[in-house]
Design goal:
The complex is a heterodimer of chains A (about 270) and B (about 350). Chain A is α/β, with parallel strands linked by helices. Chain A is about 35% helix and about 25% strand. Chain A contains ten helices and ten strands. Chain A has a six-stranded mixed sheet, with helices on both faces. Chain A has a four-stranded antiparallel sheet with strand order 2-1-4-5, with helices on one face. In chain A, α5 packs antiparallel against α6. Chain A is globular and about 55 Å long. The termini of chain A are far apart. The N terminus of chain A is likely disordered. Chain B folds into two domains: about 40 residues, no CATH class; about 230 residues, no CATH class. Helices cover about 70% and strands about 0% of the residues of chain B. Chain B contains 13 helices and four strands. A two-stranded antiparallel sheet of chain B has the order 1-4. In chain B, strands 2-3 form a two-stranded antiparallel sheet. In chain B, β2 and β3 form a beta hairpin. The radius of gyration of chain B is 21 Å and the shape is globular. The chains are: A alpha/beta (about 270), B mainly alpha (about 350).
Chain lengths: ~270, ~350
Amino acid sequence: MTLTAVAPGESSTLGRIASGELDTTHGAVLYLEEISVSFDGFKALNSLSLSIDVGELRCVIGPNGAGKTTMMDVITGKTRPDAGSAFFGQTIDLTKLTEAEIAHAGIGRKFQKPTIFERHSVFENLELAMKADKRVWRTLFSTLSSPQRDSIAETLRLIRLGDAADREAGLLSHGQKQWLEIGMLLMQEPKLLLLDEPVAGMSDDETERTAELFLSLAGKHSLVVVEHDMAFIEKIARKVTVLHEGSVLAEGPMAQVQNDPKVIEVYLGR
Amino acid sequence: MSRLYGTRGWILLGAFAFILFVAFPVLSLKVSEQSALHLSQYWVTLVGKIMCYAIVAIAMDLIWGYCGILSLGHGLFFALGGYAMGMYLMRQIGREGQYQSDLPDFMVFLNWKEYPWHWWNTEHFWYCALLVVAVPALLALVFGFFAFRSRVKGVYFSIITQALTFAAMLAFFRNAMGFGGNNGFTDFKRILGLPITTPGTRMLLFAATGFVLIATLLLARWIVTSKFGRVLTAIRDAETRVAFCGYDTVSYKLAIFVLSAVICGVAGALYVPQVGIINPSEMSPANSIEIAIWVAVGGRGTLAGAILGAGIVNFGKSFFTQAFPEYWLYALGLLFILVTLFLPRGVMGLLQRSAR
């Protein structure tokens, strides 16, 4: 059997996604415009507009219920907006694609609670996440090529789980699970990473290393980090967006946002 | 080879094949009936029947044990395969029926003058063999497509599959369906020109069933050890994550549901010539639930456990229904409760624990 998955770099398609490079000619990787979502009358997002530049590391903060997770749900296709548009690059309309198609287009998401495949080994978790032709038939006959093995090994090193490759993922510590999930995202070779509370439950040491990792990823990837941990945000933040009641309250460098009286009133001042 | 089983596994499988393909034929056909070692037709039929159930159990384990989808309609796919084979067997009766007509007895009884449209071409074995595979596949494809696309999951999926098999049973009870109503098909005479009740033919059917059982086990094992198999277990454990990894989970669930249905259809087709009857009671909801019990008893997600579970429960059933007929259902219920409480990983879990 010599059928292998699509080699890295080679374009693969799923469903109706056109192959080829993401069109980011206007400098932005993600545009949200006037997005509104309501659940039973409650406005989770209220004409939210946001744009993320290529290679940017953006931090999103806001009190509970500000709409941070709903925003991620809209971007990844889990929730459909009632109004507004969401574009990935210039051409990909996110509101028309399924979760799997969006993942294929190049958006990776880390959940608030670490979501990994607990019964698979750490290695298999990365293997399943790896960018490849993910259609049924190809997956049935897929075997790992040596560049693919190398790329898994490299990610294992990066997330410091090199010694735990064969361990069942469910047996990892909480912090390690967080790292594994980040590793899975990286295996997808996404252009945009959405990270929902990535350092929750991590030790100070682990948090420190995560900050380093994110800073090293910015530039190659675009990152959107939602966090409550202000110390962590201060460490990595360049541009910060503050959400409040489903729309953008303030946006700018950390120092400027911290001194914004509106922000102090709803969030930081408490 | 080594991806499928280790040395011990292949030795066990070899021993199993030896029993099926050497010991059984010799003890049943060559050893004289006076000898204590002789295996009677009763045993050949019983073991043959249980092997058909074991094939169904593997199909169930693939979808439930590995992909977490509890289908309680697998008895329907089994029965459909059985009916497709039954149609061929009815055509093979020829004019030897009660009424000496070209038509099966039940059609003469209903005063029908010719075969209804859906019996077209059923006198050919190849066509019926095609139906055995195609009918369950098509039904699973259409039903599964709508269920999985609408994200019907968990207990809701189990309930609608129960409803599906129940509805089919009511339909097959009707004489107008042209499948013999509540009597179904029986009194078969020949298969592929061979008289169906002779020990030789029975042994051939037995061996064919054994072959399909082993082939199904190896195919299933190959699937679950592939990347596709790992995606299935990932769907079972964290479906959302699988979708966010870029897998279209609907096609994966559909693929395994259709394959599982086809395996059941083949098992049904092997079952009918051995037991000599197929009727709508095979579609009763309780039958489908029993399939799930076999797998639970044997141990989900182990394949070998599915075979073991089907064996244990059905030998138990055949013993109980002769010795204490009225207590079988209590025994089955008790077994299920005990397994759920004390052996969540089934008999295989117990064996693995004691092996360590």
